[in-house]
Amino acid sequence: MSGAAYLIIGAGLGAAAGWLAAGAYAARASWRGGRGRPRESTGAVSGSVLRAADAAADVPPGARLDVLARLLANRASDWVGLAAMVVLREVDGGPIKVVAVSDGQDTRLIGRDVRPDSWPGRAVTDGIPVVAPEDEAAIGSGVGDRRRAPRGGVAVPIRSSSRIEGAVLVLGQPLLEAAEVISRMEALVIRVAPLLGPAHDVAIAERKANTDELTGLANRRSLNAAMGAGDPSRSALVMLDLDHFKQVNDSLGHPAGDTALKHLAKLLRAALRAGDVAARIGGEEFAVWLPGADLALAMEVAERLRALVARHPFPISGLEYPITISCGVSACPVPIPHPDNLMATADAALYRAKREGRNRVVATGGNAG
Q1: Fewest CB within 10 A of the end CB: N or C in the chain?
Q2: pLDDT tens digits for range 296-351
Q3: pLDDT for the residue 111
Q4: Is CATH 3.30.70.270 the right assignment for the domain spanning 220-363?
C-alpha cells in the first residue's frame, strides 16, 4: 500500500481492527460475506496486479471522464468481487457526487450527493483509505429501489498530483483482507488517476460552460446543443417563466428572487424524466426540452409542472412565499413541421398565457390547459 495509514471507522467490523503504518501492518482485518474469493495477502501489490492495472488504464488519451470513471468502478468491482462506485468533487470543500457505478448497479445513483461525514466522504476529505463498519451504508438508496443498500466497504482516495479528486469504493463485506483490498484499489488508482485528473478538469470546464451558475440547470448554449442533437423531428418544447417575478424582487429583495429561481430549478429537476433537459435561458425564463414527446404529452408535462410549482411555495426568512408559472408549449412535427421553429412558437404561446391571466398552460394553436 502506498499510503501511510488507513482509517477504520467504528467497531462493527467483527474481527477487523488495526492500522497500516510506516509501510508495515500493525494488524490484519478480515470479513465474512461478499462474492469475492479469498486470496493470500502479501501486504504488497504483486507484479500481476500491476500488469492488470496497466491493462485497466489502457484507454485512448483524452477519454472522457464518464468512460474513465466507469472503467475504474468496473475494475475495482472485478478485483474485489463487490459492487463499486466512483465519487468526485470539483473543489476542496465542495459537494461530493457519485459519477460512476459498476455494471449491474442502479445508474440512478449517478449524480447523488455523498455526505462529507460519511465513510466515502471521509476518504475524500481526509485523503486516506477508509474501512467502514458492517452496518453503515455508503449512500442511501432514495431512488425507488427497494433492495437493501450494501453496507460496509472500503474507500480509497483518488489523487491527481497534490489534489484529491475523489474516491473509488467497494460496497459490502469482501472475503479479502482489508490491506489486500486497499492494495488492489490503490494499484488501480495509481494507473488511472493520471488520466482521470485531466479528464475531470475538462468535464468541470464543460459543465461551467454549459450550466447556469445560479440554478445549476443547463444554460441556453446547452439547450441549443441538446435540441440539435439526435433526431428532433419528434420532440416538444415548453417555455415557462415565473409569474410576477418583479414583485418578488421589489418586495422581498434580489436575494429572495434568486432563492425563488433556485427553488423552481429544484422542482424541475425532480419532476422530469431522464433525457429531458431543463434550462434557464435568461432572467426568470426557463425551457424544458422533451425529446420524443408529442404535443399531448408536452401539455401533460407542462400542466404537471405548473401544478407542482403552485403547490410548493418557496421558503424565505422562515416563511413560505407562493409562486406560480405560465407555460407555452410547442411540438414537432404537429403542429410545427420544422424543429427550428419550436422556440419561437413556444415563446409566443407563453406570452399568450401571460396575457390570458398567468398560472396557465397554452399550446401553439391556442389550446389552453
Answers
A1: C
A2: 999 999 999 999 999 999 998 888 999 999 999 999 999 999 999 999 999 999 99
A3: 84
A4: yes
Is residue 180 part of the annotated active site? The answer reads: no
352, 328 Cβ separation under 8 angstroms: yes
Please state, in angstroms and rounded to a whole number, the distance separating the CA atoms of residues 337 and 340: 9
Tell me the backbone φ, ψ of residue 211, rounded to 5 degrees. -125, 140
CA separation for the pair 54, 50 (Å, rounded): 6
Judge if the upstream peptide bond of residue 333 is cis by omega within 30 degrees of 0: yes
Task: Please write down the long-range contacts of 304-308, taking CB distance under 8 Å and 24 or more positions apart.
Answer: 304/271, 305/238, 305/240, 305/267, 305/268, 305/271, 306/240, 306/359, 306/360, 306/361, 308/267, 308/271
Q: Is the dihedral of CA 203, 115, 8, 140 positive or negative?
A: negative
Domain parsing of the chain, residue ranges: 7-210, 220-363
- Angstrom distance (rounded) from CA 150 to CA 147: 9
The amino acid at 31: W
Catalytic residue among 136, 165, 284, 300: 284
Cα of first residue to Cα of last residue in the chain, in angstroms, is: 63
Question: How would you classify residue 5: left for phi > 0, otherwise alpha for psi between -120 and 50, otherwise beta?
Answer: beta
Say which CATH superfamily domain 7-210 falls into: GAF domain (3.30.450.40)
239-250 pLDDT per residue, tens: 999 999 999 988
Return the pLDDT at 5.
Answer: 63
DSSP 124-153: HHH-S-EEEEEEEESS---SS--SPPPEEE
DSSP 4: S
Measured CA to CA, the distance from residue 122 to residue 104 in angstroms comes to: 26
What's the half-sphere exposure (Cβ side, CA atoms, 13 Å) at 289?
28
DSSP H or E run through 236: strand 235-242
